[in-house]
Fold this protein.
Amino acid sequence: MKNKLLYLFITFVLASCSTYNYQTNQDIAIYELKTEPKEALFTERKYTKGSHTLKFYIHDLDDSTFQCNNIQIYDSTLAGELEAVESDIVRDSLYMENTYLKNEVHINIDRQCTNKNSQIYLETNEIVKLQSYNLTRQRQGVTKRVKTFLIIYFSLSLIALIGSVIWLNSFFSGW
């Protein structure tokens, strides 16, 4: 009788634990497009030292978009080679599916007909707006909290199960 009751109890506990449906939830990095002062292009290290990892896009008054290659940033000028690209949609924020775009820098200039020259030389007064993606917040998924909760829950359940088995064994051994 006591073996059947113990077997029934263990089966019930194991069956109730196996019905949990675990869903993964990845961490989400959120990058937002921020407007920065145009002087930051020439003074901040992330542009002057990191220009080889950044992609610079130039937007002129004709709504044309160019990728600027071989960037050279000096004290107050920017030089580079222009390559016409299809008009990219400038996204306001980036999530996990498109975080590869986080190294884009968008520069709006006060010039028309930029596509006639393959070289560009910009001074500070020709730049209207400088925008780049900055990490605003990193929302960690629920997974870390759920994992911690599940570890604590299953540890306590295991301790309770072992305690119950010992108590039932000592209770029924007296019969």
Strands lie at 28-36, 55-59, 65-73, 77-85, 93-94, 104-109, 119-123, 127-139. Residues 93 and 122 are 27 Å apart (CA to CA).
